[in-house]
Structure to design on (341 residues):
């Protein structure tokens, strides 16, 4: 640093802090949130830290300074994290016999009027009918919603608790021969359900998951008004609950005798502990990483393209395509993958 001017020295100090924070955040995917709930919050900032380090690297390159190596090395160490953030091209193909699977958090079909847009249930039903997925997984599903229900001959619609107004659902064009709910032991409607679906001569187990919400409002003004200590504490507690829920689900996944697909609203990013837990044994492929493009944003956050909805496909199954549909009927965007059967 002795060859740097005062301003460059100050810039390099901030660069070092950003690089250290990014390196630490890489490790958080392997540290149980229950151990360090508040520290795990840093994983939400990985996308921002990656972009900040890219900016620092470009700054030093323009200045012809070897300090660019700091951010470059940190980014190379976390190369897989960068690919989780953005995909330049997707690997797509077609097969004569394909199965399409869609996951969609429908936000109660606007039952509480979160948007002024009219006829949301009808618009969601029309959208699903147009895309025509063979299997549809919905989270925050209003159990008496008849529009979607009428599109599929086979279904498993489950609400957690007698007084619940909503739950989760799996709809299928193919026969469902088994179904169950894991029922997370926490207050609220977050849960995981699964069905065994017979597709031609094969049986697939389909998990629909909705992990604990972190209760982060997408509006930047709401974040500014929030008490930072309470917000961080709530997020940390949410991460701890997500860990427990993921452990329960993965126990059932690991007992499954069939090829398996896991999809739904994780309420967390691809840099989180629960994301890493799903693929701890390299059994699954994130369909976005295989066939997606761009940031793959699935949640309407005003200040960053957040991807918190996922479709994990058993490695024994070929992924043909992945798409994200940017409509305005919920605070989540629906995602769809096509697989070869």
């Amino acid at each position: 640093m002795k060859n740097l001017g005062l301003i460059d020295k100050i810039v390099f100090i901030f660069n070092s802090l950003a690089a250290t924070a990014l390196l630490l955040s890489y490790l958080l995917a392997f540290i149980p949130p229950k151990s360090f709930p508040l520290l795990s919050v840093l994983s939400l900032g990985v996308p921002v830290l990656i972009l900040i380090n890219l900016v620092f690297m470009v700054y030093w390159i323009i200045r012809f300074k070897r300090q660019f190596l700091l951010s470059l090395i940190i980014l190379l160490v976390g190369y897989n994290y960068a690919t989780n953030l953005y995909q330049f091209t997707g690997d797509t193909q077609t097969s004569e016999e394909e199965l399409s699977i869609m996951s969609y958090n429908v936000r109660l079909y606007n039952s509480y009027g979160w948007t002024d847009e009219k006829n949301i249930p009808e618009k969601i039903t029309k959208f699903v009918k147009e895309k025509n997925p063979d299997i549809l997984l919905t989270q925050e599903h209003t159990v008496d919603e008849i529009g979607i229900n009428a599109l599929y001959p086979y279904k498993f619609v489950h609400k957690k608790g007698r007084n619940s107004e909503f739950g989760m659902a799996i709809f299928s064009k193919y026969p469902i021969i088994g179904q169950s709910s894991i029922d997370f032991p926490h207050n609220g409607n977050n849960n995981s359900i699964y069905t065994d679906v017979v597709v031609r001569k094969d049986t697939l187990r389909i998990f629909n998951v909705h992990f604990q919400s972190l209760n982060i409002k997408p509006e930047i003004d709401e974040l500014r008004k929030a008490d930072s200590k309470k917000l961080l504490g709530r997020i940390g507690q949410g991460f701890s609950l997500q860990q427990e829920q993921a452990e329960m689900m993965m126990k059932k996944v690991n007992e499954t005798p069939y090829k398996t697909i896991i999809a739904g609203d994780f309420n967390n990013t691809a840099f989180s502990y629960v994301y890493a837990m799903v693929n701890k044994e390299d059994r699954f492929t994130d369909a976005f990483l295989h066939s997606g493009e761009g940031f793959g944003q699935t949640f309407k956050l005003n200040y960053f393209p957040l991807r918190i909805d996922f479709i994990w496909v058993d490695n024994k199954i070929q992924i043909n395509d992945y798409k994200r549909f940017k409509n305005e009927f919920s605070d989540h965007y629906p995602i769809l993958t096509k697989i070869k059967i």
Residues 220-225 have pLDDT under 50 and may be disordered. Residues 228-254 form the longest helix (27 residues).
